[in-house]
Amino acid sequence: MKIGLLVPDSDDPTTFIAADPTQLSTSLSNSWQRQALDLLSRAVSLPSELQELAREFHAPKQPGGSIEHVQGKALIRQRVQHFRDSGMEEALALQPGGPRLPEILSGMIEQDLETLRSGTKMRTIYHASTRYHQPTRDYVATLARAGGQYRTLDEPYTRLLVMDRRVAVIPIVDDMSLAAFIYDPAVIDYLVEEVFERCWSRALEFDGARTVPQQVVSRLRQTIIDQMLEGTNHRVIARRLGISERTLARHIAEMRDDYKVDSLFQLGYVLGRKTQESAD
């Protein structure tokens, strides 16, 4: 009965009659062949259907966050402002490129003061050339009195902003029209400890005072010397150090007087010999 050799009589359902074995075998054979082909097809396609799931299952677990590219200065500022408005306990910044425009500083000072009053710890590194810029000195002096911490560094470095160690912002292009917002905790920790903190340890305290410490001048000139000996042209040196070409020329002229030479060629020769003697 299970395979259909006996079937109910159409006139009397309580009575069973024998089915034609030939017809039954043909019917069962066709049915079972279709089922077998279906199972075979499913068996063949199963590995490819589960391939993506298998890759995800065997992939190493990655708990880190994402990196988002944001284009356009206005949109970048809006995104940074959003994080500031959400409340911060700590803000770290590397600000290369020399003095900032006075109108930018005046537009920032009230908000930065409010941020400090809310309890946020702010640490910022500027280039040493900002010590010669009165608007920057006034800005730093005001915020330093409110609890902000500032230092200057006389060597080239790249821009970095870290907010609450939850997000780090770095430039993708020099004019900051395209930036990467990094949310991965491991990457952020690396940027803080290996980039910001190392720069902070080498930088010199800056409270906005008008007097430029001799140590700052000496280190700035040493950086100029290193760049000149590498063959870097004056325009690039000035841009890297955040100073004007005119200021760079003044430093070079004073170094010529210090080493009692008349030309830039002679200065380069003397500096090269001095460096070689120090190495020996």
From TrEMBL:
<dbReference type="GO" id="GO:0003677">
    <property type="term" value="F:DNA binding"/>
</dbReference>
<dbReference type="GO" id="GO:0006355">
    <property type="term" value="P:regulation of DNA-templated transcription"/>
</dbReference>
<dbReference type="InterPro" id="IPR016032">
    <property type="entry name" value="Sig_transdc_resp-reg_C-effctor"/>
</dbReference>
<dbReference type="InterPro" id="IPR051797">
    <property type="entry name" value="TrmB-like"/>
</dbReference>
<dbReference type="InterPro" id="IPR036388">
    <property type="entry name" value="WH-like_DNA-bd_sf"/>
</dbReference>
<protein>
    <submittedName>
        <fullName>Uncharacterized protein</fullName>
    </submittedName>
</protein>
